[in-house]
Amino acid sequence: MEKVFGIPEGMNDKKTAFCPGCTHMTAYRLIVECLNELGERDNAILCRPIGCSLNADGSFDIHTIQSMHGRASAVATGVSRMNPTKTVMSYQGDGDAISIGVAETLYAANRGEKMTAIVINNQIYGMTGGQMSPTTLIGQRSTTGVRRADDTGYPLRFAEWLGQLEAPGYVARAALYTPKDIMQAKKFLLKALRCQKELGRYSYIEFLSFCPTNWGVQPKDCLKYCQENVLPVFPVGEFKSCF
């Protein structure tokens, strides 16, 4: 019988510490698959901060550099400038990239650094305990309160914001929800990496992800929850494309 699905080259079946229903490993798989298809896995450097992303350690074969919380884009900037022929990526959560590290993320984009920023948007702080993040939805509960527009402001649509800047070459948002969504996410990620590698420009791609534990939603109910609550606020699509 022909095998049509398996672990891509550069990944293994090591058990991770991610919560049930988390889609971080879906994002990592897409990164490995895209780098393989572009022939860039051995030439890639992934910059990651402190956060849930570290639960994947040992499960994939990509050169990585550890940064402090919120500083992955700053570290990726230095790595890219010192290694201009490398495919350099940052991998961050929404709280990390759009709150703690918002200055680093925004100005790397505004300078047009030769890198690809990959941001996992699950509308909450994951590893640190479910606190409110810049993307937390109106009325959504967190361990630090309930988001109200008149108190904590609205969810920040960062991809739309970066799409208005002159320097970035590619800006998009995709969902890691259904198989169809994941296929679109891979298509967008390939474009983002090509924009960096072929044109030497900055790319930003945001992945909408599940976080059942901190949402207080059962994994089996996450798809319905996101279709009803997340997608109306964070629509998927390309906000700027150099292709």
Please tell me about this protein's structure:
The structure is a single chain. The chain is an alpha/beta fold and 243 residues long. The protein has helices at residues 24-38, 72-82, 94-100, 102-111, 149-152, 158-162, 179-199, 212-215, 222-230, and strands spanning 44-48, 63-66, 87-93, 116-121, 141-142, 145-146, 170-175, 203-208, 237-240. It has one domain: Rossmann fold (3-Layer(aba) Sandwich). The N and C termini lie far apart (39 Å). The protein is globular, with a radius of gyration of 17 Å.
List keywords for this structure.
35% helix; 243 residues; 9 helices; Rossmann fold; alpha/beta; two-stranded antiparallel ribbon; globular
Under CATH at level 1, the class stands as Alpha Beta
- The percent range for helix content is 25-40%
CATH topology: Rossmann fold
Bin the strand percentage. 15-25%
Q: What is the terminal-to-terminal distance?
A: 39 Å
Mean pLDDT: 94
Based on CA atoms alone, the radius of gyration comes out at 17 Å
Number of strands: 9
Task: Give the full name of the CATH homologous superfamily.
Answer: Thiamin diphosphate (ThDP)-binding fold, Pyr/PP domains
Topology as H/E string? Answer: HEEHEHHEEEHHEHEHHE
Main sheet properties:
7 strands, mixed
Tally of domains: 1
Q: What is the CATH architecture descriptor?
A: 3-Layer(aba) Sandwich
Query: What is the number of helical segments per DSSP (H or I, 4+ residues)?
Result: 9
What order do the strands of the largest sheet run in, or round the barrel if closed?
Answer: 2-1-3-4-8-7-9
